[in-house]
Amino acid sequence: MYELSIWTVLLLALAAGAAGWVDAVSGGGGLLQLPALFIALPAGSEVNALATNKLSSIFGTATAARTYIKNLTPDWKTALPMASVAFAFSALGATTAHAVPTKYFGTAVVIALVIVWIWTLMNPLMGAESNMRWSGGTRHYAVAIFVGAIIGFYDGIFGPGTGSFLLIALVGLLGYSFLLASSAAKIVNLGTNAAALIVFGFSGSILWTLGLLMAVCNICGAYFGARTAIRRGSPFVRLVFLGIVAILIIRLAWDTWM
Predict the structure, then answer these.
(1) Between 102 and 86, where is the model more confident?
(2) Per the domain annotation, does 1 fall within a domain?
(3) Number of structural domains, the chain?
(4) Which domain holds residue 247?
């Protein structure tokens, strides 16, 4: 493990806790945790930062998913096929990431997030309650599997905003409430994180000691984040979602164009 000061480790632990809370509510925890790792680790260790971020995140995602499952009833018939497909395509994305020039993704992702943000802002009733589309039909599952494949591949090859894209796809395309969508998104996110973690594990890129320490804090944040979302409901999840996506747009725009 790299030689890090106790203060740096404490700040990384704090970032992991905050990331777990945000990710459990609306997705986007990587906005806090991944930049913190990039800053803390020396130049040239970007792959170690990505891999360690996945290790910490998967524990928080699992905790959030378990908390949602104990208090809500996820749509397993939709979430499990999505998670399986997302797992496979995330692994495919992670293994081909080195061969694809991801620098061109930034502009497209920023534009997509701006559209998502405006659409969500202009439709305040969207996601307040579940209004399922094609519920139980072939088209419902076809759309869910397609979304799982696209977002899974994106998470493996690039990543920023994966949780937010999952959330808005489940709300906008399939008609879930923000709260139920958040619970399903955590199950799917487990698949994408697990696939990427396996790829990183075989490459020897994970900083295990640091990642597991951050995972403890991520778990605590995820637990309280999921509990807060369940208690406050869909309007709260929507509000946090709008805030996180706005920050994500600014950050990606800065990284891409500045």
Answers:
(1) 86
(2) no
(3) 1
(4) 6-257
